[in-house]
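Hi R.,

Here's the chain you asked about this morning:
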Amino acid sequence: MIRSALEGGLWDCHTHIYGPWETFPLPADAAYRPAAAPMTELLELHQRLGISHGVLVQAACYQTDHRALLSALAMTGGRYRGVALINDNTSDATFQALHDGGVRGIRFNFMGHLPGERNLGQLRRLAERVRPLGWHALLHGHLEQLLSVLDAWRDLDMPLVIDHMARQDATCELDEPRLKALEQHLEHEKRWIKLSGVDRMMQGAAAPWDAALPVARRLLDAAPERAIWGTDWPHPNIQGAAPDDDRLLDFICDVCGDAAAAEAVLVHNPRRLYF
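And the predicted structure, written out as tokens:
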């Protein structure tokens, strides 16, 4: 079994935390109101799965208030990193404080149910402000949306990470021309793919997710040294029951096919991106 051959140092590169509410309440205008999912619960999950490193992606419901994220990162002694949400009002001093606290990237949301700036010129200026810190930009949207971003930012000299396999629908025929265009973008030495969100690609279906294996393997083949993975725990805004995180780890091992590829995706690639 591939998982048993991994030597440790595994990364979960996509998680969110919510609460505890008495310390980190949501704002009155939160985009959504999830159940509490504090860092202590995430650490318990990771210990059970054999994961020692993680990435906390700032939840849209907290907007640009990063107190919960920074507090959680401080609990891990540098083993975990963060991805922030920023806007034009974010100061350089705040960027430095976030960096010192373990943040290594920013996320741009293009999904309709999530708030965020959509103007590519404005977003590019934000990306260029954090580039000197060595950060990356995480792009969350559907394939068609993200191709427009990648086309517009071909010359942007910083890592751009495609979130959740570009939110493709693996339950129907793939958009072959656009998938090939994404594969071409992933040939760029600073374009990354996150092989997460398979349950979303399968429209909430429970494991096994065999129908998603072909597209996931194609994306891995397109950028084997720039592919990473995450659970998306605690699975906000999903259809039906949350997926089994243990099965999600099994899935990425099946995508990788052998221990060497799994070591790259789960250990070596994220270490390079986040450290």
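Strands lie at 10-15, 51-57, 80-84, 103-109, 136-140, 160-162, 191-194, 227-228.

Let me know if you need anything else.
M.
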